[in-house]
Amino acid sequence: MPEPLLMKYVGRPGRDAVDEYVRTGGYEAAARALKELTPDDLVAMVEASGLRGRGGAGFPTGRKWRLTPKREGDVRYLVVNADEGEPGTFKDRTLIEGDPHQILEGVLIASYANRVHRAFIYVRGEMFLGYERLRRALEGAYARGFFGRNILGTGFDLDVTLHRGAGSYECGEETALLESLEGRRGEPRVKPPYYPAVKGLYGRPTVLNNAETLAHIPHIVRLGADGYKAYGPPILYSVSGHVTRPGVKELPIGTSLREIIFEHAGGLRPGRTFKAVFPGGSSAAILTAEHLDTPADFDSLAKLGSMLGSSAIIVMDDTTCIPAVIRRTVEFYRDESCGKCTPCREGTIWLSQILDRILDGHGRMTDLELMDGIAQQMTGLCLCALGESVPPALRASLTYFRDEYLHHIRAGSCDVVRAPVAAGGASG
Amino acid sequence: MSGRVLSDATLGEIARLRDAYPQAQSALLPALHAAQDQVGYLSPEAIADVAQALGLAETEVTSVASYYSMFFLTPVGRHKIRVCTNLSCYLNGAEEVLRRLCERLGVSPGETTADGRVLLEAVECLGACEEAPVVLADATRHARVTAAGADDLLRELR
Fold first, then answer.
1. In chain A, is it the N or the C terminus that has fewer CB atoms within a 10 Å radius of its CB?
2. What class has domain A322-411?
3. What is the complex's ipTM, to 2 decimals?
């Protein structure tokens, strides 16, 4: 197991102080990038590293940078998506609170690589502590000359603005985030244009990267693409739910779900058995015990009809009522739908009504086909992925846990044995 | 809309924000945060002041403010308690914590206590699932909150 790169100093106090970060080698990669490498060198290096965006879609970061037009004299922007909100995901918050300069150094290198002189970090509104840590970190970095005019005497200029959101899951979607950053309602934009790289903030070419993605950049510059890849390459899994040691686990990408859950996250509480897992946030199809040996990477999970997404692993043991969990996720998307597209707005309402009916003991045998049909109609018909985030988990639950739904419909009650309340609460 | 309610300090902050962005409207969310921090909620007068400071229509400002769950267009409690009820917290007993807070405060989720002191909200994933169940009391995050812990948390607010 290689030593952690991104999580190495997370947990130590005072990491938002610039002197502390510099003391452990911080901003050396940025200094080297600005002084010894060209922007094109950096784009090539990030492409060679194989880094894929860590916001959920997994788009290759180097390719995104290369796609960004860099015409002389044009205004370009870098926007950091720190609006983490996918249920079960807390890696960005952990990095922001625990080692915020790592992200800022990534912002500096990415801006130089993309010939950007103005960057914005969109921080989730509820992330009070993280915002404060980032604010303090940025202030310190400005004072040491890592941002502002003529950075490190290289002639490169970069200004960074922290921007607080105000409570909206939808704003994590990149075009909705840009709308929000422009001071409007956080509704997604009509595509095409498909990439903010071409037409983003204020209609200008915009590099939009997730916070964790940028935290990888200093390490890629420091180690080189091959040296970085020797670490796995690394990925941050957010592991939570019914495990005894929840937390962010930095591991080589493709570590099996079994190893992540049972070795690194401490396994289940005593006496409990494994039931199901969301491998990539609540937008990913749930998987069961038969899938535990699957490598948690983009392709292996996609093959199972699920996804790595934001690599948020939510574990459920045998005290979990699956229809109740699915209802909770459907309610989430219902409440967070911006309402712009009909299949998402209406579909989530209908699904939650049907699930209410089933869990209240008034379900009908036709409800399962009805839900499946609604879920199918929500796929591929919306401007963004929010509505489409509902069908995978719902449809997987209808496949793997059909009997549970049928029991609720037939008996009008739940047959899942609840956990003792003292052990942390009941569910179902 | 009559009368200005935002203080010179708040309006000064909004002017600073306006100049910090390439386009003034980008300062709208931070400006609304500043206005709400001062007034306690976004009253029609506060909306009017923000609109004027940024050169926007009041209807536009109201439309944007109403979109975001952290902005309040009607008066709410001075303290805000946000209980995460999303998956990881739900799996670890968030409903029980929420129920206890509802009982103690005598409100339903989304309501403010009769004395105007505390707003209780059930919210979505706060991105701290390793600490489930999580409660955000104003800007302070509380980890692994139990029903008994919810009582302590209320006492600390006073």
1. N
2. mainly alpha
3. 0.97
